[in-house]
Design goal:
- The protein is an alpha+beta fold.
- Helices cover 24% and strands 45% of the residues.
- The chain has 2 helices and 10 strands; from the N terminus they run αββαββββββββ.
- The protein has helices at 2-31, 56-62, and strands at residues 35-39, 42-50, 70-78, 84-85, 88-95, 100-103, 106-110, 113-121, 126-135, 142-150.
- Strands 1, 2, 3, 4, 7 and 8 form a 6-stranded antiparallel beta sheet that branches. It has a 4-stranded antiparallel beta sheet with strand order 6-5-9-10, with no helix packed on it.
- A hairpin with a 4-residue loop joins strand 5 (88-95) and strand 6 (100-103).
- The chain is globular, with a radius of gyration of 20 Å.
Length: 154
């Protein structure tokens, strides 16, 4: 009887662990918001993530405001050789109620990497359509468009 009770308890814990793992994978897949698009000779990597993922000391160093309702949009542009390019970005985010929020990017250069980061205040599960005009040096502009459902950090 004792062994049966222990086995059932262990089985319950295992089932709970499996369910939590599945939920975690689904949630992580939804949060995996990094994407890439190619425009001729340029590749644009873009991602959206909660600002609390940035450590406080690093955020302070770069002047980034952290907050549970603050998402960061990260754009990185590379030429056909893979070299990072300091492109000009003009952008806005538009929610489903057609409210436009301008995005102001801050460029961060670290060794050979160039990142452009823009803050965006959100509400939980808010969907935004992003419109970003990318102008690489001595090149014609092109428009990056993508949609993200964003989450407030618990």
């Amino acid at each position: 009887m004792f062994y049966a009770h222990t086995f059932i308890s262990t089985l319950r814990y295992a089932m709970v662990a499996i369910v939590l793992l599945c939920v975690n994978r689904l949630y992580a897949a939804d949060l995996d918001q990094e994407s890439t698009q190619v425009f001729g000779d340029y590749t644009v990597h873009y991602t959206a993530f909660n600002s609390t993922f940035i450590q406080p000391d690093i955020a302070a160093h770069y002047g980034i405001t952290r907050g549970k309702n603050q998402t960061l949009i990260n754009i990185s542009v590379h030429d056909k050789t893979g070299k990072a390019v300091d492109a000009k970005l003009d952008a806005y985010a538009q929610n489903l109620m057609q409210q436009k929020k301008p995005l102001t990017f801050k460029t961060i250069t670290e060794q050979a990497a160039i990142y452009s980061i823009a803050p965006l205040r959100i509400t939980n599960e808010e969907v935004f359509n992003f419109h970003i005009t990318v102008t690489p040096p001595q090149s014609k502009p092109f428009t990056l468009k993508f949609t993200r459902k964003l989450y407030v950090e618990p």
